[in-house]
Design a protein that fits this description.
Helix 4 crosses helix 7 and helix 4 runs antiparallel to helix 8. The chain is 36% helix and 14% strand. It is an alpha/beta fold. It folds into two domains: 165 residues, Rossmann fold, CATH 3.40.50; 103 residues, Adenine-specific Methyltransferase, domain 2 (Orthogonal Bundle). It catalyses: a 2'-deoxyadenosine in DNA + S-adenosyl-L-methionine = an N(6)-methyl-2'-deoxyadenosine in DNA + S-adenosyl-L-homocysteine + H(+). Keywords: Methyltransferase, S-adenosyl-L-methionine, Transferase.
Length: 310
């Protein structure tokens, strides 16, 4: 008997909750794309040196199939391990996640808490996985996704030792295994090159036919907002200045470059850090929602920056 598989119609989209993810900002980003170059075929390559949840990657590569090459980078080995696991062995990943979901969902709150912290402990006991084990590590990717889907606010936060330290969330019925989305991401990522590396290592791929989207760890707009550490390495003002220098390098290569970041003027109208840093480029303030804050009263509408060289 021949089984006819139903054609996958799920659109590729982010498979993780991610602080700073660009899903809500996509309409504004799309309005600010170099559309003439994208639609006219001048742009043939897409590079995203801080991939995060991949919202912009999925959107642009789906909207402009004429782009021939895509490369994504990140220094977070856990994140890249998840991308590579989906790319190479999504079937095993889905199987493990279904097992987690089937076990976790029927549990009471106290049982869930024990299960969550047991997974987190096992995850933190194996921080050198990338040096020791075959890469990608599918089981570890499943642990990462489980923690991401059940933790507080979908945060990725680690301490200076690299240990994941986000507490359990209070979701009643979290989707731990979104199989259609993972399968769609697998098909999509087969045409993407995935790199565990510093953003500057993307330079050799970039030329005048490349669109580059830079979404670095945001500069905190207040002291309390810096709790969402992106990795065990801080991205401070010196790093932001170094990124500006890289932006200039790409501009001299005649690449099309867009960068997003926080707007310091939300907290201090006299803070011209980015206005001075990118004064020779196009700076646009766009509306966004601040969703990640420990106090609900501190969430709401803010502005973010989109900076372009075109």
């Amino acid at each position: 008997m021949v089984v006819t598989q139903q054609k996958n119609i799920t659109k590729a989209k982010p498979f993780l909750k991610w602080a700073g993810g660009k899903t809500q900002l996509l309409p504004t980003i799309k309005q600010n794309l170099p559309l003439a170059a994208l639609e006219g075929g001048t742009i043939k390559k897409y590079v995203e040196p801080f991939v995060g949840s991949g919202a912009v990657l999925f959107e642009i590569m789906s909207a402009f199939p004429q782009i021939e090459e895509a490369d994504i980078y990140d220094i977070n080995p856990e994140l890249i391990n998840v991308y590579k696991s989906i790319q190479y062995n999504v079937e095993e990943l889905v199987e493990i996640l279904h097992a987690y979901e089937d076990k976790y969902i029927p549990m009471g709150q106290e049982e869930r808490k024990l299960f969550y912290y047991a997974i987190r402990k096992e995850f933190n006991n194996d921080l050198d996985f990338i040096e020791r084990d075959y890469y990608p590590n599918i089981k570890r990717a499943a642990q990462f996704i489980f923690l991401n889907r059940t933790c507080f606010n979908g945060l990725y936060r680690v301490n200076k030792k690299g240990e994941y330290n986000v507490p359990m969330g209070q979701y009643k019925n979290p989707t731990i295994c979104n199989e259609p989305v993972l399968i769609a991401a697998n098909a999509f990522l087969k045409k993407v090159r995935i790199h565990l590396d510093d953003y500057r290592e993307s330079q050799h791929l970039i030329d005048e036919s490349t669109f580059v989207y830079l979404d670095p760890p945001y500069r905190p707009i207040s002291k309390s907002s810096s709790f969402t550490s992106y990795s065990k390495f801080d991205f401070n003002d010196t790093n932001q200045i170094e990124l500006r220098d890289y932006f200039k390098i790409l501009d001299k290569k005649n690449a099309y470059v867009m960068l997003s970041n926080s707007d310091p003027k939300n907290n201090d109208i006299s803070d011209n850090f980015f206005d001075n840093l990118y004064e020779e480029f196009h700076i646009q303030r766009v509306n966004a929602s601040r969703r990640i804050n420990s106090k609900a009263s501190n969430r709401g509408e803010i502005t973010e920056l989109l900076i372009k060289n075109y």
